[in-house]
C-alpha cells in the first residue's frame, strides 16, 4: 500500500501564489522565472543574480521511441470501482478515505479519451501512474502528461515525482503544479533535511484552462529539465534526486466543483 506524501495537503499548490519571487522575464517562451519557497517568500534558494536558463525548443528525450509506460484512457470506465479495475495496470490510487482527504474511487472515471477527476468541493483524489510493480522504481527518465482543468476555482493540483521511500529529503519534483484558476508552475525542492519546503522554480504563462503537454526530464544527480509543449522553460542542476521515485498527482478537496482532465501519460525510463 502506498503512503501519502506526508507534507502534502489539498491546498498545497497555493504556495505558488504566496511565494513567487521574480528573477527575470523570458519573452521567447512567455514565462516568468523565479526562485520560491513554500513557506517564506523572503528566503532565497540559490543566487538571485544567476542568469536565467536558456529557453529553447526541443523534442523531449525518448520521443520517437516506444515509451516504457503509456496510457491514453481510450476505454470508457465509470467511477465507483470500474475505472480502478479497468486501469489496474496504469493507475494505482490512494485508498479511499486516506488521510480523510482522498477518495479516488467515486471521483475518477474515463470517457471521451480522457481520465476525468471530478472535483466536488469536499473530496480530493490522488494516485500513481504505472503498473503495480513498475510504478515505484523510476530512477531518472522522461515523464510527460497532457492535461487541463475546467472549473474548480479555489482548488489546486500537483503532478510530481515523489520518493518511493517517502523520505522527503530524497527530492520532490513538481510539474505541473498550481491553482486551477491560475497559471502552472514547476518546482524542484531542496534535498536537505529540515529545508525540504524550499524550492527552486518558476511560474509559466500556461494556464490549466487550456490543453498543454508538461514534460519533466530527470537525469539522476545531474539535472532536471521542465518543458511546456516541447519548450524547455527551466533547467535545475541542484538538488537532483538519485533514488527511486514514483510519478503521481494529487488534487485538493476544496473550492468550486470542476474537473481535472488527463488526455494521456507517457514515461520513458532511463
Low-confidence stretches: 6-59
User: Into which percent range does the helicity of residues fall?
Assistant: under 10%
Rg, rounded, reads 17 Å
Order of helices and strands: HEEEHEHEEEEEEEEEEEEE
Strand percentage: 35-45%
Instruction: Compute the number of helices.
Output: 3
User: What structural category characterises the helix and strand content?
Assistant: mainly beta
Question: What composes the largest sheet?
Answer: 9 strands, antiparallel
Tell me how many strands there are.
17
Mean pLDDT, nearest integer? 81
Morphology call? globular
User: What is the CA-CA span between the terminal residues?
Assistant: 25 Å
Description:
- With 270 residues, the chain is mainly β.
- 5% of the residues lie in helices and 43% in strands.
- The protein contains 3 helices and 17 strands.
- It has a 9-stranded antiparallel beta sheet.
- A hairpin with an 8-residue loop joins strand 11 and strand 12.
Summarize the structure.
By secondary structure, the protein is mainly β.
Record the SSE blueprint:
Blueprint lengths: L14 H5 L2 E5 L4 E7 L31 E3 L10 H5 L4 E3 L10 H4 E4 L2 E6 L5 E5 L11 E11 L4 E8 L9 E7 L3 E7 L8 E10 L4 E8 L3 E6 L2 E6 L8 E7 L6 E12 L1
Antiparallel strand pairs: 1-2, 2-12, 3-17, 4-7, 5-6, 6-17, 7-16, 8-13, 8-17, 9-10, 9-16, 10-11, 11-12, 13-14, 14-15
Amino acid at each position: 500500500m502506498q503512503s501519502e506524501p506526508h507534507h502534502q495537503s489539498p491546498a498545497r499548490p497555493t504556495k505558488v501564489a504566496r511565494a513567487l519571487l521574480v528573477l527575470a522575464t523570458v519573452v521567447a517562451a512567455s514565462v516568468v522565472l523565479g526562485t520560491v519557497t513554500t513557506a517564506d517568500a523572503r528566503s532565497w534558494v540559490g543566487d538571485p543574480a544567476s542568469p536565467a536558463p536558456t529557453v529553447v525548443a526541443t523534442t523531449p528525450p525518448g520521443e520517437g521511441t516506444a515509451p516504457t509506460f503509456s496510457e491514453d484512457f481510450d476505454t470508457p470506465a465509470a467511477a465507483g470501482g470500474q475505472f480502478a479495475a479497468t486501469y489496474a495496470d496504469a493507475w494505482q490510487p490512494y485508498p479511499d478515505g486516506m488521510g480523510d482527504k482522498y477518495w479516488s474511487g467515486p471521483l475518477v472515471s474515463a470517457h471521451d479519451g480522457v481520465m476525468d477527476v471530478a472535483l466536488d468541493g469536499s473530496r480530493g483524489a490522488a494516485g500513481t501512474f504505472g503498473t503495480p510493480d513498475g510504478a515505484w522504481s523510476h530512477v531518472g527518465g522522461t515523464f510527460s502528461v497532457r492535461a487541463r482543468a475546467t472549473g474548480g476555482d479555489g482548488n489546486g493540483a500537483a503532478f510530481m515525482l515523489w520518493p518511493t521511500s517517502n523520505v522527503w529529503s530524497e527530492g520532490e519534483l513538481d510539474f505541473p503544479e498550481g491553482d486551477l484558476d491560475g497559471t502552472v508552475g514547476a518546482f524542484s525542492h531542496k534535498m536537505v533535511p529540515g529545508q525540504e519546503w524550499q524550492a527552486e522554480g518558476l511560474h509559466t504563462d500556461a494556464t490549466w484552462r487550456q490543453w498543454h503537454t508538461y514534460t519533466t526530464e530527470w537525469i539522476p544527480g545531474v539535472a532536471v529539465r521542465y518543458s511546456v509543449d516541447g519548450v524547455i522553460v527551466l533547467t535545475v542542476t541542484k538538488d537532483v534526486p538519485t533514488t527511486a521515485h514514483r510519478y503521481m498527482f494529487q488534487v485538493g478537496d476544496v473550492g468550486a466543483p470542476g474537473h481535472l482532465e488527463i488526455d494521456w501519460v507517457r514515461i520513458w525510463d532511463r
